[in-house]
Amino acid sequence: MEGIRKQAEGAIREFLELFPMPKGSLFVLGGSTSEVLGEKVGTRPSLEAAEAILEGLLPPLLERGVWVAVQGCEHLNRALVVERQAALAYGLEEVTVFPHPKAGGSLATVAFLRFQDPVMVASLRAQAHGGMDIGGVLIGMHLRPVAVPLRLSVRRIGEAVLLAAKTRPPLIGGGRAVYTREEMLRKVEEYRQGLP
């Protein structure tokens, strides 16, 4: 379990280096502890593996003031565990259900037991700024519309494939639009100098 904790911690630290999430942003975590242990999703839930993953992932996120949402399994329609304050801040609909290893999954169960004031919500309403999917449990519906994959050096947690994503605002405009501050400043300078 210590190896799983270290993999999770290494992955989130690298994630935050590549995408330094600001205070108040929303991170979504989905995962299958069965997949982490080398089994088919849903066949071998493990509270111990969930503990190890959360021990590695949560501290760096919470130190930054990032809200964490942990997705439950399909038996709960992928409802998520969040802190009550996060649900209020993001206008999320609370639902009444308590996760357990066979309905909700081990990660959601352990998150519910660890969070200070946990609630279950039906959806994040596509508001998460970034997230991780451990074992192919599909978190995309919780991310903001323009998700960008993050290629981490940590490719697996245990035996489960690790996928990470950040989001960015949509790029709008046409041929005249610019997408970086540097490009904008160059265009302003060109305008001031009367260049075409």
TrEMBL record:
Highest taxon in the source lineage: Bacteria
Any Pfam family hit: DUF436
Annotated coiled-coil segments of the chain: none
Protein family membership: Belongs to the UPF0340 family.
NCBIfam families: TIGR01440 family protein (TIGR01440)
Record protein name field: UPF0340 protein Theos_1390
